[in-house]
Amino acid sequence: MLQRTWNTPYPMTCALALLYTTSCDGDKPDDPVSLACPGAAAETIDAGDANGDGAVDLADAVVILRAVADGGAAPACTAAIDLVPDEQLDLDDAFSLLIHLFEGGFSLPTDVDCAGAVPLEMPFCSPLEARFSETGTVELRADTLDIEAWSLAVTAEGCTVSAATTAGTLGASIVDTPAGLRDLGYDATFLAEGGAVSAVVLGFMDAPALPAGAWSPVLALTVEQGDTCDCTLRLDSTVTALGEPVESLAVASGGAWALSAEATIDACAGR
To answer: Is residue 79 assigned to a domain?
Structure first.
């Protein structure tokens, strides 16, 4: 399991903030929210780790996309993200990483020389929340972060997830009816053992983001009741899909921000 660590220089303050739903300056807000922190810099950088936080996840694919498409920050180590070995950074590298993470069938290089590489600088702890609506839709909210991608690993207890889709949410394409925010972008949403997985990048050539300060629906679930009507849904730290663990996280400012949520809904509602 990937461990998220605190960014300096205020690690203890942010840790207490998460425990007591306070802000990083110690003041308790009128409307308490959850604070999240991005992954810290890694001592070593492996293949696929574009931002240098020690993990290979959706954030790394977005870093590559931004560097290629719209002049975003250069990856921490070019050798680590030359996944289609041609000695240049291009969209093929980003697509190959997405396939590796969510579709299978592409293996990362094992010999990468990133000595002296400098990880990307990440912002400090920021308000970020995830929740399930009464109907089982996953919703995200961030006050200051521009969330432009996310991966969700949903598990169910006491019920079964029978369908998962971005249709009707802001993860849908701009040409869908109703329209979402995804302009081209990427959507890999499917059922997995015990639940569902959804990975979305809102845009390739630009960087659309979820609206700040509002709850945004991003994944609609259909659940089938078990022995009772109680259905407990969770955003777990990992769900295994295609042999690889998928982590629940949001991508903003080149970093991966861990997500968690749990709710018990009525699986018999509307039947």
So the answer is: no
Classify residue 98: in a domain, yes or no.
no
Residue 145: name the closest of 213, 83, 78, 81 by CA. 213
- Per the DSSP assignment, residues forming a β-bridge with 234 are 155, 262
Q: What is the mean pLDDT of residues 159-177?
A: 97
Q: State yes or no: pLDDT of 5 exceeds 70.
A: no
Q: Which residue stretches of the chain are H helix?
A: 11-20, 58-69, 78-81, 91-102
Question: What is the spatial distance between Cα 131 and Cα 75, in angstroms, rounded to a whole number?
Answer: 31
Residue 137 lies in a domain: yes
For residue 248, pLDDT over 90 is answered with yes
Asked if residue 178 has a cis previous peptide bond (ω within 30° of 0), the answer is yes
Rounded Cα gap, residues 42 and 71, in angstroms: 24
Domain that holds residue 222: 130-266
Overall number of domains in the chain: 1
Does residue 171 surpass a pLDDT of 70?
yes
